[in-house]
Amino acid sequence: MTQPTTASRRPRTAKPKLDAVAAAAIEQAREALVEVTEPGQVGEHLRAEPAGERLVTHVFDCTMPGYRGWSWVVVLSRAPRAKAATVAETALLPGEGALLAPAWEPWAERLKPSDVGADDLLPFQEQDVRLEQGYEATGDEDEDRVAQWELGLGRERVLSPEGRVEAAERWTEGEFGPRQTSHRGRRGTVTATCSSCGFLSLLSGSLRTEFGVCTNEWSPADGRVVHLGYGCGSHSQTGQEETDHEAARGAGVVIDELEADLELQEPTSDEQAADESAADESASGEQAADEPVVVDAPSETAADAEKADAEVAAADEAPAPGEDGDPASSEDSGRPESASTTEV
């Protein structure tokens, strides 16, 4: 026969009663605060709350600058059968909406990489998940040379797989991570990545499959670790696809890129008549220039004719030059001739 189970009851805790003697000692609580504060930092009395048997908490407003929402508290206690209360403690406590400092964090968690400068010294961490034990010399010259020189393991600690993964994720999500490529020149894309750039120097180890160092002084990533999918306008093959190769000199290649469209228009009747009249005038002018110009001499008057005849007769009667011994010049024997026409 099963016995009925009864649920265990929680013990009742009696709510403490407000002690009348301690609650009435408001001035005693204020004097306790005045002794530990500066003048003007304690405000008016807000309330009195029971904190236990014969324990009362008096709450005062805090008027200190910068402590909005904070309150002063004074705890008074009364011994059994005592007629006066005594001060137990004083404190400054925040209330709802009070301005609080951020939650405390350890120094190792609070410090960020951006807070550390080149001359700052960090403490040594014995256990660092980003590092692992390096190669220890064995004494064999050939093996030690391969491990220390060629593989770069001649250090006490080297990068662990977790450290490599963290570095790769940080560099991939950084400023020089992979970018989208497009041969159409869309905004925010590149035509070529660092994997095909001649200025890329690959890292050593397994990180060389995804990262390298840029050595182009004209690139914004000069001296930075870049992802092989990153790209910029300073690529070693910049503009090769857009630029036309120049033809070799002396090859006899002529590229004519100038084109003109000619439209023939028939002349109107008025323009055709004007052109014909201009052609006739030019033809008549050329014919007149080829013919000789004849200028008629002025006609002689009757008096001039008689005078000329008399001079001719006198010339016939005169002796020939040299017959009478008188010298005669050829100029006296000449006579003027009259021209009837003159050709020009």
UniProtKB/TrEMBL annotation:
It comes from the Bacteria. Residues 280-291, 311-322 have a biased composition (Low complexity). Residues 266-279 have a biased composition (Acidic residues). Residues 266-344 are annotated as: Disordered. This is DUF3027 domain-containing protein. It comes from Brachybacterium rhamnosum.
